[in-house]
Amino acid sequence: MATETARTAEAAASDHLTTTDRTALLRYMLLMRGIEARAMTLYRQGKVPGSFYDGFGQEAVSVGAAFAMAAEDRLCILHRDLGAHIVRGVTPARILGQYMGRAGGVTGGRDGNIHFGDRALGCVGMVSMLPDMMLVATGMAMAFKLRGEARCAITWFGDGSTSRGDFHEAMNWAGVQRLPVVFVLENNQFAYSTPVDQQFAVNPVRRAETYGFPGESVDGNDAEAMFDAVRRARERAIAGAGPTLIEAVTMRMHGHAAHDDMKYVPKDLVALWRERDPIDRQETRVRELGVDTAALRAEVEGEIEAGVQEALAMPMPDPATAADGVFAAEAEPLGDGHAPWSGFAR
């Protein structure tokens, strides 16, 4: 089976990040992995309804990309990109409360699991089917252009999404209108059980060129490479040069969801990608800069455990409020999220 592994580049530290930035990238990735690990345990204990989807091994894609976005930008986040929510400022307690359907979760218990977004932080709630969020992000970018606003929208989607019409419609309109939008394709080698060599004959990076804008293939297990690629794409969008497609080459290290034992994935392929773990890579970089990563890990674990206890203490939503918020009484604008990159402070 052909894989995309050969096209990934060697790790290269960014010239646009301070030691504090690099440590923050590691911290956000540790939070994402730790929260999802605890959520999986809660799922197996029967406290998380439905199924559970995680992004184990893909932390660099969402964290590195979201880190490059400004507070006023808008994020359309996919289910394996919890790191983007964390970068924007959503707390572990609210995320875990969301998974358990608690009143203190992001949607107030209206939806358990993965379909959530915090409007106040500029995070748009995920829409199934995929890649519908590409159209949402493209529409937002169209609004930015019509209003003359120097803002950018970004969205994430999987390799399976590239086989659907929504993908092509969003790419075409964004290209024709030269919209300020960044498309992040998470090429994690499998669309459920379909490998990428059965998914497309022409790589989507080349397809972007046919819609009139550039595409770039990036090592999706390198948070700093992801940051750099999205930073360049955002600057290009804000300058009025139009959209960019970024292919983040990575690997889905767990099954499609908690119920999937991924027997269809060759074990040697998983072993190969385990050696490219994005957190291990960033931790090595940060440790070489003199940061006490053991202390950082302990701090993150404490924050997650506090979040777990806070979420478990949240009540279930009041059934009498079940119909609240079904219809919007008035348009509620999206707010600005956290933009932690030091470059925005200059």
From TrEMBL:
Q: Among its keywords, does the record have Oxidoreductase?
A: yes
Show where the Dehydrogenase E1 component domain sits.
Answer: 29-313
Recorded catalytic reaction(s): these are:
N(6)-[(R)-lipoyl]-L-lysyl-[protein] + 3-methyl-2-oxobutanoate + H(+) = N(6)-[(R)-S(8)-2-methylpropanoyldihydrolipoyl]-L-lysyl-[protein] + CO2
Entry EC no(s): 1.2.4.4
Q: Which UniProt keywords apply?
A: Oxidoreductase, Thiamine pyrophosphate
Task: Tell me one GO biological process term.
Answer: branched-chain amino acid catabolic process
Q: Which InterPro entries does the record associate with it?
A: Alpha-ketoacid_DH_E1_comp, DH_E1, THDP-binding
Named cofactor requirement(s): thiamine diphosphate
* One MF term in the entry's GO annotations: magnesium ion binding
The record describes the protein's role as: The branched-chain alpha-keto dehydrogenase complex catalyzes the overall conversion of alpha-keto acids to acyl-CoA and CO(2). It contains multiple copies of three enzymatic components: branched-chain alpha-keto acid decarboxylase (E1), lipoamide acyltransferase (E2) and lipoamide dehydrogenase (E3).
PANTHER family hit by this protein: 2-OXOISOVALERATE DEHYDROGENASE SUBUNIT ALPHA, MITOCHONDRIAL (PTHR43380)
- Which protein family is named in the record? Belongs to the BCKDHA family.
Supply the name of the protein: 2-oxoisovalerate dehydrogenase subunit alpha
- The organism of origin for this protein: Capillimicrobium parvum
Q: What does the record give as the organism's lineage? A: Bacteria, Bacillati, Actinomycetota, Thermoleophilia, Solirubrobacterales
